[in-house]
Design goal:
- There is one protein chain.
- By secondary structure, the protein is of the alpha/beta class.
- It has one domain: Endonuclease, Chain A, CATH 3.30.870.
- Helix 3 packs across helix 4.
- It starts with 5 loop residues before the first helix and ends in a 7-residue tail after the last strand.
- A hairpin with a 3-residue loop joins strand 4 and strand 5.
- The protein contains five helices and seven strands, in the order αβααβαββββαβ.
Length: 170
């Protein structure tokens, strides 16, 4: 499997946008399992959650890269998306911007059927998952037309989505 988003994020110079459209990801995720058992992330206790991804985001933001994540979600939220909502405090602390769009408010938007990252409006990293949420494959595509379509889709979602600080999970 190809390396994750960290590598292209380390090369990004202007922007990195991430769209997530699934209601469930890997059930065996240790952070999810700990959350499910009652563990919560406290932004002021970094040594319990800060990891390589947070370093990569923090570094990108420090060099002027806008890192944004939008999630299209079903309501009421699945348990996994509730975990993501709670965990988003770590993304925010690293410098990411996060927004939430209920699926019912996206009914008239052209939304890709897969999760993706777009770096500097030039290259796309698609994530393909199995039905039970396991990441099966990543595909890097350097195609300006496809990247533009993904960015345009992301921007339509972003404009309609609610910032994390204002979103109230249902």
């Amino acid at each position: 499997m190809q390396p994750p988003a960290r590598e292209p994020l380390s090369r990004a110079q202007r922007s990195a946008v991430h769209l997530e459209v699934r209601d469930h990801y890997q059930s065996e995720d240790p952070d999810f399992l700990a959350w499910w058992e009652g563990h919560r992330f406290h932004v002021d206790n970094r040594e319990t959650w800060w990891e390589g991804w947070h370093d990569a985001v923090h570094s990108a933001v420090a060099r002027g890269v806008a890192v944004r994540r939008a999630r299209v979600v079903s309501e009421p939220l699945s348990e996994y998306v509730r975990f993501e909502y709670d965990y988003a405090v770590t993304n925010l602390a690293a410098g990411e911007q996060v927004r939430w769009l209920p699926r019912r408010r996206a009914k008239d938007l052209a939304i890709p059927a897969v999760d993706f990252w777009v770096f500097d409006e030039e290259s796309v990293l698609f994530h393909y998952f199995s039905g039970d949420g396991r990441l099966m494959e990543r595909e890097y595509v350097k195609d300006g037309v496809l990247a533009k379509w993904c960015v345009d889709s992301f921007e339509a979602i972003w404009d309609r989505a609610t910032p994390h600080e204002e979103y109230k999970p249902v």
